Amino acid sequence: MKEYKPESTSFIEISREAYAGNLRFLKKTFGSNVQFSSVVKGNAYGHSIPEFVPMAEAEGVRHFSVFSADEAWQVLQAIREDSGIMIMGSIFDDALEWAVVNRIEIVVFEPERLKKLLIVAKKTGIPARIHIELETGMNRTGFTKDTLRMMLPLLRENDGNWILEGLCTHYAGAESIANYLRVKQQIKTFRQMAKWLQKQGLVALRHHTACSAAALTYPETVMDMVRIGIAQYGYWPTRETFMHHFLKNPDAGDPLKRVLSWKTHVMSTKEVAPGEFIGYGTSYLAGIPTKVAAIPVGYAQGFTRKLSNLGRVLVGGERTSVIGAINMNMMLVDITETPEVKRGDEVVLIGEQNQKEISVSSFSELSQNLNYETLVRLPDNIPRRIVG
Ligand SMILES: *Cc1c(COP(=O)(O)O)cnc(C)c1O
């Protein structure tokens, strides 16, 4: 019996059908000649790189973007096709040779990284695949024109040791109209800098600037490739982004379907007499005869304690409330209205049951997190299962 491994107390379902539908919508929106880079940083926004990446490849995705070298390593283990991998952010000097040898594309935004990459390329005889990030107004990372001008001689000397896979930038808040002027200015600056670089003889294989929000609200940002994170998983970056789409397509409904659901089971049930406190402390007093169900998920599993006395779950086909404090590994929910609920019944923490839904955004609003944050906080050790 040594091989037996007990199941985790909850699991996450990844819907292949929902993902395929989202890809169809996004590809139709951007056009078939635009490369789709699937952004899988943050463990594929909580969907899990080892499960999500092969599914995405099976649905036709051939390019993945990550933040860091360790995430690129995970994607490299997961891919089965000849897909491209791009590191947008962090890579330590020690990892540069590994990246070059494995033909991983690297976004460069400061001289040191570029210099070290060229040294590695020379040594290994394999050209470094670089994307040059331009500073257009976000003031986070990216080369200014002056720094780039200083890099030009180095690039010319090293001709053959690099492939300019892309020119790119990132917008400082394309998900809100509040940043409209700043984003418009960034688009203009990007175009001017790209043109100037071209005059210097630096011609990139592709230009890419758009995340989900930019690609869905500023069509001119789409260019040759889009870097799509949140939308492929079935979420609009913000309500504003959805409104932008909705006003143009008022009859079409929501084309994005949530890919992820989070489920568990009822562990036990109990009846509590009126006048009794329920759970730790005195935060919940039963005013009437109350039936509660214990659910084996708590803040250790990523169900935030901020949802004490506030969270909602689906059980017995109904939406019900968390009672008292979220414990480390457990919570109690009110089943007074659905007394037939019993041990072993399915509980939906995020997702649908009986045509009712607990959305990541309702979950996020109650806990005052962004959708993005709620998703990436789902612990890696909850098993992911592909369904559909
Ligand atoms: C995260 C990220 C994206 C994807 O953003 P979404 O809003 O999830 O589509 C694109 N580009 C860069 C540089 C990023 O860091």
Give a quick summary of the entry.
By secondary structure, this protein is an alpha/beta fold. It has helices at 16-30, 41-45, 49-58, 69-78, 96-101, 111-124, 145-157, 180-199, 212-217, 239-248, 360-367, 371-376, and strands at residues 10-15, 35-39, 63-68, 84-90, 105-108, 128-133, 162-168, 206-210, 225-228, 260-265, 268-272, 290-295, 312-315, 318-323, 331-334, 346-353, 356-358, 384-387. Strands 1, 10, 11, 12, 13, 14, 15, 16, 17 and 18 form a ten-stranded mixed sheet that branches.
Outline the structure in words:
- By secondary structure, the chain is α/β, with parallel strands linked by helices.
- It contains twelve helices and 18 strands.
- The strands form two sheets. Strands 1, 10, 11, 12, 13, 14, 15, 16, 17 and 18 form a ten-stranded mixed beta sheet that branches. Strands 2-3-4-5-6-7-8-9 form an eight-stranded parallel β-barrel.
- Helix 3 (49-58) crosses helix 4 (69-78).
- It is elongated.
- The two termini are 32 Å apart.
- The model has no long low-confidence stretch (mean pLDDT 96).
- It binds pyridoxal-5'-phosphate (PLP).
- The site of pyridoxal-5'-phosphate has 13 residues, from helix 9 and strand 9.
